Amino acid sequence: MKTNIEKAGILIESLPYIRKFSGKTFVIKYGGAAMVDEKLKDAFAQDIVLLNFIGIKPVIVHGGGPKINSIMEKMGKTPTFVQGQRITDEETVDIVEMVLGGLINKQIVSLINSHGGLAIGLSGKDGNLIKAKKKVIRKLSPETGVPEIIDLGLVGEVEKINPKILDTIDESGFIPVIAPISAGTNTETLNINADYVAGEIASALKAEKLILLTDTEGILDKKNKLISTMNSRKIKSLVSKGTISGGMLPKVQACQNAISNNVGKTHIIDGRTPHALLLEIFTEEGIGTEIIK
Ligand SMILES: Nc1ncnc2c1ncn2[C@@H]1O[C@H](COP(=O)(O)OP(=O)(O)OP(=O)(O)O)[C@@H](O)[C@H]1O
Ligand SMILES: [Mg+2]
Q: Which residues of the chain have pLDDT under 50?
């Protein structure tokens, strides 16, 4: 049991961080176990509400891969991925929009509200927040070694963020919760990887921090040991060796993109740890991997 004096000490230790970060914007990508496990969900929502009450402006962008997979399977469809990105046909994009923009987005909004916050859910379509175009990726053909275009279907790439709606939400004191979906050039719905959306929104808002929650301790080396700081050179080398792959690729790209656009700091942290956000923000050493220039 902590004595009351010890409790007061812990609160006082957070004072320098509160002073430093009050009034600043933190963009947080919410995904993985922290979105599934009941205790972790509550701890996340409490952290967000606490940050908000001390004057930090959290902006949440969420994923929802596992739920989309399970609903697709119930509907007789098999989820497929290339380079960590979902192949998305017309039926799949409808499922993505229903699950992300409806079910999951509103669950997060009510979770935050149940802890005393005032959250508001939106997708990239609302207020034209995200302008996107169809994404094209290339892969070297194993037979010829020539790059081939891979059609991911209705997968988008952010062209521009229109932060006006976020400014309005901020002025009214609400906490925005964003589903990574957008309308494309011909009003078709596009599914965008949430890590990229979080990175682009952090850049557009000149956020103090971009924090990506995931299901690993951070970036791991080939012996599965946590790497606490990484720069572009190290990332390039680990990507070319295949040590960084799949779902970690969009994360490192999002962080690199954000820091080159004046976002203060970027972190990939373990969402399986209760109150991971507080541990990152209110301790000198932080947790997970910090990505620097
Ligand atoms: N070097 C690496 N270090 C850590 N994880 C890695 C590495 N390379 C690849 N990964 C994979 O990246 C995964 C994280 O990305 P993933 O897309 O699966 O989850 P998420 O983005 O947190 O959730 P969601 O996509 O549902 O929002 C890890 O679970 C791991 O399998
Ligand atoms: Mg992912």
A: none
